[in-house]
Amino acid sequence: MMRIGNIDLGERPLFLAPMEDVTDIGFRLLCKRYGAAMVYTEFVSAEALVRSVNSTVRKLTISDEERPVGIQIYGRDVASMVEAARIVEQAGPDVIDLNFGCPVKKVAGKGAGAGMLQHVPLLLEITREVVKAVHVPVTVKTRLGWNHEQLIITDLAEQLQDCGIQALTIHGRTRSQMYTGNADWTLIGEVKRNPRIHIPIIGNGDIHSLAEADSAFDRFGVDAVMIGRATFGCPWIFSRRELTLEEKICVLKEQLMINVERIDEYRGILHTRRHLAASPVFKGIPDFRQTRIAMLRATKVDELMAIIDQAYERLKTLQP
Fold first, then answer.
1. Considering only CA atoms, which of 61, 70, 74, 59 is closest in space to residue 37?
2. What tens digit of pLDDT does each residue of 113-141 get?
3. Which of 68, 76, 85, 93 could lock onto 111 through a cystine, CB 3.0 to 4.6 A?
4. pLDDT of 284 over the 90 cut
5. CB-side neighbour CA atoms (13 Å) of 135
6. Going by DSSP bridges, is the β-strand pair 7-10/2-4 parallel, antiparallel, or unpaired?
7. pTM beyond 0.85
8. How far apart are CA 43 and CA 97, in angstroms?
9. Which residue in 234, 223, 230 sits closest to 197, CA to CA?
10. Which of 31, 102, 163, 234 is catalytic?
């Protein structure tokens, strides 16, 4: 049985990774429905939160139906991360997660996210001070290191544990890899097997199915598996039950309507289009590229619904 603080997460739990422009509340609720044991908000900039930027503050909206839920913050200095953590605590998450893993240039290039892997003493100071500043469990998500010459995760895991974090998520790539190549889980397994490590270790990277998640549990002994990009347009990836094609189409339509009703028509569609375009449901359609382009260009609900319906009709004719 896995636990973070007092949160009981069950046996072999699967987590939804925090992803910018992906893990909004509508998507999180669907992933929770289909079996995600823990979900995370989109990551939140500490500096923007401290400055009360509206678009950032909105990301703190969580609902009781999605619990347990974590809010993830990123930043590069102690004061703003501590203040942001205190603001986040008021939103009532079950966990506050510190992002020391995002590799994208606008984050890591400025020293935040995976950029912190080049400034380990500061990374540890931020972690210690945030743990002291809040009462909810603090966790960390990071990578193996900055590059293959600096695979620091085995030592870093112990240092982070000493700072008082209550779980550690490791993405099996370096920052320099970004999302290319294959995730290397061997070091994740090494951290988990370290007798000095007593906090839960959550593995992340290249998990595309429940079978791959089960294999990661078996081979590397992790306490939980976090799934990221494979969830796009596929919130049922967490389900042990195979959904029918009709059920999957209904879920995608529901996701669209949740977002439209939650925000507005235009931005609700924006939030959903990338899920539709990436969904494995439509992969079997010949010349899907044209349909995909139409989905990404749609600006009205009726228009997008019609495209989904047309795609569904084509899929039905392809089914054996």
1. 70
2. 888 999 999 999 999 999 999 999 999 99
3. 76
4. no
5. 3
6. antiparallel
7. yes
8. 9
9. 223
10. 102
